[in-house]
Amino acid sequence: MRRIWAVAVNTIRQALRMKVAFIFILLLVVLLPVMALTTTGDDTLKGKLQTFVSYGLSLTSLLLCLLTVIISVHTLTSDMKYRQIYTVITKPIRRFEFLLGKLLGVVLLGAVLLVVFSVLIYAIVVYTPRYFNPSQAEIIQAQNEFFTARKALSPPDPDVSKEVAQALKGLVESGDIDQVYGGMSNEEIIRELTVLQTAAKRSADAGQELLWEFENVRLQDPNGSLFIRFKYEQVSVTPADSQIYSRWLIGDYRAYKYGIPGDVRLYPVQRKDPIKTFREIEVPGSVVADDGYVAVLFLNDQSNGASVMFPLGEGIQLLYKADTFTANFIRANLVILCRLIFLASLGILASTFLSFPVAILGCVAVFAIATVNEFVVESFYYIDSLDMTIVYAYTLKWLIRLLPQFDKVNPSRYLVPGELLSWSALGFVVLSLICIKAFLLMILGLIIFSFRELARIIV
Known about the structure:
The protein folds into 2 domains: 2-148 and 324-372 and 407-451, no CATH class; 202-321, Jelly Rolls. The chain is built from 16 helices and 11 strands.
């Protein structure tokens, strides 16, 4: 362990002598305070905080990831290029100890920088309300919707199998199936009909209602608040003021729907909200039934004169406090640390058999794909070309899935809306990025480096 630590210390010193490290650190030192002063968001306290955390944490993650790649590749390739490795390998140190020392040094430097700039971001966020003189309403809004860690529950996708079967049967009997879906396979027609029927389940005409039901809602504080987060995706006719008038009922709706005897606790809310904008309704936690059941009923006001549709997924969510902002912020930074460990392992692997420019290019390409991996995977589902679909299914699909998905667990995605980044989600990142992928990269790097010829003995 002493030999590994000696290599790690030497790696840190070597990295600190690099000019690029000072440039990246200087950029963060300058840009983070500037962003704190210039970001406005929607001109509310919550908007300022959300915008700063989103940009600040994303910038910190980006620069530290790139710095980790550069240092991890440079530290080994430069040793071999300038033959400094000869003075190390000739000492009583094994090659795996040498690589592990390099990895430890890069990770320690990245972790220290991450802690420094995370503390800076956290301090700016915590002390921002003291310098902008927000109103009491803005402070309460920020406490409820930003300085928190809320668990988000989404309703399950509606079962539309019967509606799809009836629609398909009607098309076949009427003979319109070839005219409407000519050239499509039966699976493609069913998929198209499923999308249409699911959209119909998420829309309400003027005067109609939509009902969502949630189970196992357990509040930490029964006297706390419950939040309904929603967004109108589109309307058939846009109102003159782009506002949708609605009435909401939140609580135990089973007595009405199923005729179950018991106390009926429904909290009524009258709303006027813009379209294509996330909005939240705060209701008392007492609306949740003793068994954790709560229903959300939406009534599209007749005066709108238009149908309203909610987007799939995050169109309607139930949120309640499950942890603190500080704990959530720490977990978010641990996710970034996992990225740094993976990229350090990738950089060391690449530097065992590639030159500096090629290794940097390959690592940056992997980092770029990992940042938008989820988008890349989803985009292939919309390819119309059969040949490209087959190529993706048997080659690119498995190659892309081997790469990490940084965007699947994105810290800003949780911190900005105040959603809970759970320990289980963090555990998934640790397992996939460190225990599996980073471990395999280091094993492969050790194998390659152990067989690499560093020098020839000429007699």
